[in-house]
Amino acid sequence: MTVNDQLVSFVLTVGIGLVAGFFYDFYRVVRDLLRLRKTALFVGDLIYWLTLTAVVFVLLLLCNQGEMRFYVLLGLSLGAFLHMKFLSPGTRRIILFIFRLAHRALLFILALWSLLWRVVAFPFKIIFLSVVLPCRWTSGACTAVGRGTARLIKRGSAPVRSRMRDGAARFSRLFGRGRKNK
After folding, report:
1. Domain map of the chain by residue range?
2. pLDDT per residue as tens digits for the range 125-162
3. CA distance linking residue 36 with residue 34, whole number of Å
4. Whether the model pTM is above 0.90
């Protein structure tokens, strides 16, 4: 490997270090927004470092065929340091701004969806109110009348019982179902 190739590889590893710093800032913003507890923080850190290790490994394979030399470690460290020292505060603000913007866009879409749902459901509500409610009111009235009648019958009011007996007897005589008199 020539010195020129090594210099290009060093610059690429500094870039990989910058990318690693960016991903760390992204993870920090997500972690702060989600307010992770100890166990979730441990799992999140583990996933972050495993993912970052795989990404750095693939990028190193692409840029210098996976050769690990001192300048590669120096380039990764220098890139991460430069990002954390100079770019991190601005990067975190931009990432947080994007998340807030996405949150507002999602809320707007949900509000729009809710409004659209209300517009579509309105005719069905009108039908429901014009058909079902009168049926409920009629049903309630019939139930009230039936309960009132049942209370009168259960109380044992003599006039009602005698009229019912008279009505049953007349019915039986009309249709021939009564007892025959001897």
Report:
1. 3-117, 125-175
2. 898 888 888 888 888 888 888 887 777 777 655 566 67
3. 6
4. no
